[in-house]
Amino acid sequence: MLNRLTRRSFARLAAAAALTPALPNALAAPREENVSPASPLLSFPRGFLWGSATASYQVEGAAKEDGRGPSIWDTFSHLRGNTKNGDTGDVADDHYHLYKTDIALMKDLGLKTYRFSTSWSRVFPNGTGTPNPKGLDFYNRLVDGLLAAGIQPYCTLFHWDLPQALQDQGGWQSRDTAHAYANYAGYVAQHLSDRVQHFMTLNEMRSFVDLGYGNGMHAPGLRLSRADLNQVRHHAVLAHGLGVQAIRANARPGTKVGLAENITCTVPVIETPEHVRAAHIAMREENAGYLTVIMEGKYTDLYLARQGADAPKFTPEDLKAIGSPIDFVGINCYTPEYVRASSAPAGYAMVPAPESFPHMLSPWLRTGPEALYWAPKIAASVWNIKEIYITENGASSSDTLTPDGAVYDTDRVMYLRNYLTQLHRAVSEGVPVRGYFLWSLLDNFEWADGYAYRFGIHYVDFATQKRTPKLSAHFYRQVIARNALA
Ligand code: GBH
After folding, report:
1. Ligand 1 atom 8: the closest Cα is on which residue?
2. Could you tell me the pTM of the whole model?
């Protein structure tokens, strides 16, 4: 016999399916006596913020419209060989024009919150100097639309699209860029903070530093020496710190400031005390150039020792700015990094992944759901963090439209169910995760991978801009509606 809750769940699922011609007969009612009820729902705390995330260059398009200046991603993606199939973000999801359609998709999902990023070169076409009012206007319209739909906007101020004009003056190799960033961040916060309560300074410093300036896979495509790269990394965390100060100085009182970093998500190889301890040490040391220096206001001794003569040059004032207190930490969490105890002086060792490790379509996206348990739990305990968001988690899949117009991305649904089960484990232990942003709302421009790797829970036909909810969107709608794993 089905209990009442399960019966109600079936009724809701059936209703959802009925609204969705793309899922014909998906849930033809089985005879009740033959149904094994699912285990009790894994409920999340009341008010848990279910969200989704995108980034300006990946979705907006309209690359030359309304006075937007070029960014390093315009330049980089237009140079042959830098992206798969020579793809660029010139049009992307045309979200700049279709944002109302996209807000309707969010509303249909029941999203509580949406994380977007502002394009620096829309707001300041040259990076500094005179702002372009039409650039800011787009974000005013977007924010107003979100609020009208009952969706809380979370704003990231930098998701890798550095104004080309600043790159021409040295980009992140120059300290001046950190100051230019603070000026821009303060300006946007000043104008949006009457409606936006949460700002993230920078998205994934590790990615744009190491890929953009280290191995040349991302814009601006440089391969610097280790010493120069360490200096770029220092300028990135300095920009974060100066940005925090500028936002505090210019935004409404009560505005919350944080960041969104793809920290090394350390996971103990076996859940025994010695490996758990090693994973805590690794959390600090593997993130030493990023989150650790931000949370502690200094580089760890081990970090400086490991860099030796290549260590970054910095002043005590730099460290003070970098360590400016923040209100929340956003963790972008995709892959686990396994750690074991070790008798080496560091007290831990990273465990390389075997070739057979399961991954999603993107070869780097190794699937280890327990990352979403351990990363926020360990970070919260190492730095005594009181407010955490999972600012990104999601997966690429070889989505195909079936003849009936559906996308059955069962692998993405499995991925999400498994990761969210581990997030539930953390939240039920009291780890202070307040919300979760699924990457991504839409298939979009996946940087060097162009449009070849789809991360959306809505399928986008890039020829027509038609959006189709995938099975994962239906799954996520149920999670949000029940505030529980469905
Ligand atoms: C995030 O990066 C980004 O914030 C987001 O913009 C992106 O769309 C999303 O994840 C999905 O990728 O090809 O072997 O050089 C996640 C961290 C860092 C993962 C760079 C891919 C490239 C690995 N990313 N990494 S490789």
Report:
1. 446
2. 0.94
